[in-house]
Structures are given as structure tokens and as C-alpha cells.
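Training component of the fellowship. As part of building independent skills, the fellow (R.M.) carried out the full modelling exercise for a liganded target. The chosen ligand was S-adenosylmethionine. The inputs are recorded below so that the supervisory panel can assess the work.
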Amino acid sequence: MKVAPSLIASRLPHGMLLLLLAAFLSVWTIEPAFGAPQDQERWNHKYDTDNYLFGRDPIPFLKDHIDLLPKGKALDLAMGEGRNGVYLATQGFEVTGVDISETGLHKAQALASEKGVPLTTLLADLEQYEIPPNTFDVIICTYYLQRDLFPKIAAALKPGGMVLIETYTMDHLQYRPTFNPAYLLEPNELLGLLPGLRVSRYQDVDDGHTAFASILAQKPH
Ligand SMILES: C[S@@+](CC[C@H](N)C(=O)[O-])C[C@H]1O[C@@H](n2cnc3c(N)ncnc32)[C@H](O)[C@@H]1O
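Fellow's submitted model of the complex:
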């Protein structure tokens, strides 16, 4: 027997109707998860401006710990416009940056030229990209959360190599309620994502505008 939706609604208590409406609206307003092609289009579009959306300076957590990083080959995953990778290049690292947005990578190259440092960029989808194992002294990944990358990052480090990660936590929802929670870190989650590596530094920050966690960890020699 078919029942008209209006009939179902009329038989539900009002409280229940309000709850259903709230659940529907919250799902509707969360920023959707995108597949790689849409992500590429979306980021190319965002980066298509003369401004550097994330600025041209490195994140403080990278700058503050630069002296702890072993010199050599560095990989910047989801490099974007290059603020962190180009900084590493200015500090003498041989940097490769990977991103799905060619517009972002062009801006990273422009920033590297302006600073007079070499930079290798690679246009790739990190959901498909195979990171070569045992290759890098340093790997960084900032404000891009793809949980299945963590074991690949650990495998791609040379013994003694270091990884630096920073991205938003669940606390960030208070500043940006529509952020898709699938891409936000749970409390202390970063501490459990790199088993086998030794944590050198960890922070969980809420500065009143943004909430994020950062980790620096080392693969054993
Ligand atoms: C919030 S930005 C962060 C950029 C940079 N790491 C920074 O902190 O300035 C996220 C970056 O992830 C890239 N991205 C999104 N999906 C990707 C994918 N599947 N593969 C590679 N890069 C991706 C976007 O193009 C964008 O540059």
C-alpha cells in the first residue's frame, strides 16, 4: 500500500518532525566530498587569482622546527601554491611538490623563481600516486587529510627521515560549521597515525580563529 508523505508527516509527533528536518538540513549544508576531477576543477578555480590564498610564508610549525629536519630530498604532498615547499628549497632542500591543481603548481613555480630556488613539481592525484619507498629525508603534508597516505609516507621516508603534518581538527567546526568532518582530525588522532615513528613534537591548537594539530615525527635509523 502506498502512503502519501503528507499522511506520514501528519502521524509523526512534532518533535520527531523537527529532528528529521534538523538532520536533513545538517547533511545538506555540510561541504560535500569531491572526487579527484571535481577537486582539480575546484582548486584550479580557487587558485585562479593573483593572490596567494594561503599566503607566501611557511606555516610557523615548519619554520620553528627547520633546524631539526635532516637535509636532503624533501617531498611536499598537496603542495598547493608552494608556501612550505618553496621555503624548504630556500633552506637548501631538494624539493618535489605534488598536487592535483596545475594552477597551484604554476604559482608554486612562480614563487620559487622569485626566490631564486629550484623546485620540481608533479601534477598527480594523491589517491592514485605511488610514493617511491625509502626515498625522502623529509615529507610534509599540510591542510590535506587523506588517511591512507600515512603508511605510504612512513614507507617513503629514508631511515632517520622526518615527516611534518599539520591540518584542521574537529574543533575547527566552531569556526567553519560547514567543513566536512570526514576531513577533520579527531582529538589526538595524529599521534596514532604514524605507528613505528618516533614523535618529536606535537601540538593541538585553538587560537580563537582556527583549530589544528601538527606533528613532527622521525623514522628510526
Ligand atoms: C587546503 S590546500 C593546502 C595546500 C598546501 N598544502 C598549503 O598548506 O598551503 C589543499 C590542497 O590539496 C590539493 N588536493 C586536493 N585533492 C587532491 C588530490 N586528490 N591529489 C593531490 N592534491 C590534491 C588541492 O589542489 C590543494 O592544493
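The panel noted the following from the submitted structure. The chain has one domain: 60-218. Confidence is low (pLDDT under 50) at residues 1-10, 17-28.
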